[in-house]
């Protein structure tokens, strides 16, 4: 039986449309007879404040001690802010992805290593979003043992998080809210029955595996060898195998304009790399013999070939760009990449040709260039896209790790031994920053190596820097 105060809050939630009954499709695709949309609270500041007080009381009742609060982005940010302001607790904001410019921070606000942080969430189903935030803040040195949620849908989050070492405190439970609404005559017995049945059947929602695998600084990460053993896609397995065997996470970008020069670079850096990335369309003398020669060098030094074509058209067109023209890319490039912007059709088109040849595709999730227009929610949508095309997508190109799924490879371009930039918007970070702070698996280095006086020695230097940065995380 809930308190009179909570019953009246439930009633208001129902009246303003936060809690709805009917037929809904949840983010997971599941059909549900109930929906909770706490984003609406921002339009009712008095209610937001009342719930912030309930969050505070819940934590006080639990005897929880903490130094700062952090809301799960974005829906819980107003609630966390309200708790922070109303009760004078410092707050930090978790970014969903690192900024591509400026300080490149993943957390905004002042905090110190070892401080205790409470995670505030608006509504939980499996607890995946809370867990993602815990992983990120823990990697930044904060200590998290507890989280608080406004509305617990009672679909598995409490147990899932407990198994991961986090105690979840709930201000409201969905069944309690529903019973209160029934007693107040707001909903009928049939609705109560339907929701109760739904919750009974769906009470063990799991955190998707790609979100449950830890892979951050200060937590043990999986080795390339372990990751190879988890991969279903043969190409991902092979790349992780090469990385383990050759002790390298270096991909050289050989951006030169003649085939002979490119083959010379491939020979020179071959022993130090796992992937060679090229732009076939800048080769002035590209000819049908070149791919065969390149494949021979790749075989000799055991690396894979990545044509950085950045496909971005409709499915039908990219299919032709991949298989026809003078480059016939599908015949020789183990890896290609594409912009997910056009939607699923682009992957369907590329897949038609690539899958039967065992090829793989990287999705471009973020770019290294200054002022790029990639919107904030794009990496998240890209990760979702990848999840649905695991038979062809082998990973991402980006500036920060999108998802901790160990079976996707994260490539990061814009790397030099010193942080710097070029005159056309390229921005460079160090191998250590990319690997240890942004979750890169493979660093892509172009001019840092190809323009060096001694490309072979420089490639060895980058290889060491990259592999040392990875080894320190193990
Ligand atoms: P550089 O010489 O190290 O700046 O070369 C970087 C390479 O990575 C180059 O081939 C680019 O086409 C590629 N690249 C990049 O620099 N930034 C990006 O965001 C993407 C690709 Br996607």
Automatic annotation (TrEMBL):
Residues 249-462 form the Orotidine 5'-phosphate decarboxylase domain. CDD domains: OMP_decarboxylase_like, PRTases_typeI. Keywords: Decarboxylase, Glycosyltransferase, Lyase, Multifunctional enzyme, Pyrimidine biosynthesis, Transferase. Its EC number is 2.4.2.10, 4.1.1.23. Gene3D superfamilies: 3.40.50.2020, Aldolase class I. Pathway: Pyrimidine metabolism; UMP biosynthesis via de novo pathway; UMP from orotate: step 1/2; Pyrimidine metabolism; UMP biosynthesis via de novo pathway; UMP from orotate: step 2/2. InterPro entries: Aldolase_TIM (IPR013785), OMPdecase (IPR014732), OMPdecase_AS (IPR018089), OMPdeCOase_dom (IPR001754), OPRT (IPR023031), Or_phspho_trans_dom (IPR004467), PRTase-like (IPR029057), PRTase_dom (IPR000836). The keyword Glycosyltransferase applies. It holds the Pfam family Pribosyltran. In the N-terminal section; belongs to the purine/pyrimidine phosphoribosyltransferase family. In the C-terminal section; belongs to the OMP decarboxylase family. This is Uridine 5'-monophosphate synthase. It comes from Limulus polyphemus (Atlantic horseshoe crab).
């Amino acid at each position: 039986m809930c308190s009179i105060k909570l019953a009246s809050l439930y009633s208001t939630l129902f009246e303003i449309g936060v809690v709805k009954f009917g037929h809904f499709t949840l983010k997971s695709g599941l059909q549900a007879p109930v929906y909770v949309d706490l984003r609406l609270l921002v339009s009712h500041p008095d209610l937001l404040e009342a719930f912030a007080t309930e969050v505070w009381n819940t934590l006080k009742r639990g005897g929880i001690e903490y130094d700062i609060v952090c809301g799960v982005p974005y829906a819980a940010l107003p609630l966390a802010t309200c708790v922070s302001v109303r009760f004078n607790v410092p707050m930090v904001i978790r970014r969903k992805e690192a900024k591509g410019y400026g300080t490149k921070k993943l957390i905004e606000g002042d905090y110190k290593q070892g401080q205790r942080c409470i995670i505030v969430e608006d509504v939980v189903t499996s607890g995946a979003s809370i867990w993602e935030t815990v992983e990120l803040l823990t990697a930044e040195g904060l200590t998290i043992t507890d989280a608080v949620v406004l509305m617990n849908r009672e679909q598995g989050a409490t147990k899932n998080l407990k198994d991961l070492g986090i105690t979840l405190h709930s201000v409201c439970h969905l069944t309690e809210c529903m019973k209160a609404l029934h007693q107040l005559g707001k909903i009928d017995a049939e609705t109560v029955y339907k929701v109760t049945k739904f919750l009974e059947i769906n009470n063990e929602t799991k955190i998707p595996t790609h979100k449950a695998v830890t892979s951050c600084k200060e937590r043990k990460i999986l080795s390339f060898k372990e990751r190879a053993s988890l991969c279903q896609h043969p190409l991902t397995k092979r790349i992780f195998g090469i990385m383990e065997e050759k002790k390298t996470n270096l991909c050289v970008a050989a951006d030169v304009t003649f085939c002979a020069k490119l083959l010379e670079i491939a020979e020179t850096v071959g022993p130090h790399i796992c992937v060679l990335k090229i732009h076939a369309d800048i080769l002035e003398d590209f000819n049908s013999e070149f791919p065969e020669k390149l494949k021979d060098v790749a075989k000799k030094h055991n690396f894979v070939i990545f044509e950085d074509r950045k496909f971005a058209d409709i499915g039908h067109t990219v299919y032709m760009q991949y298989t026809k023209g003078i480059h016939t890319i599908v015949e020789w490039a183990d890896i290609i990449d594409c912009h997910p912007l056009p939607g699923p059709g682009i992957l369907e088109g590329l897949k038609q040709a690539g899958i039967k040849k065992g090829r793989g595709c990287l999705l471009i999730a973020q770019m290294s260039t200054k002022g790029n227009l990639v919107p904030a929610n794009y990496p998240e949508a890209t990760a979702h896209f990848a999840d649905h095309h695991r038979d062809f997508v082998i990973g991402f190109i980006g500036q920060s790790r999108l998802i901790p799924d160990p079976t996707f490879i994260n490539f990061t371009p814009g790397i030099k031994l010193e942080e710097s930039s070029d005159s056309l918007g390229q921005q460079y970070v160090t191998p250590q920053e990319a690997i240890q702070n942004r979750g890169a698996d493979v660093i892509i280095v172009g001019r840092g190596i190809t323009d060096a006086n001694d490309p072979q020695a420089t490639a060895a230097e980058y290889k060491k820097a990259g592999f040392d940065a990875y080894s320190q995380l193990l």
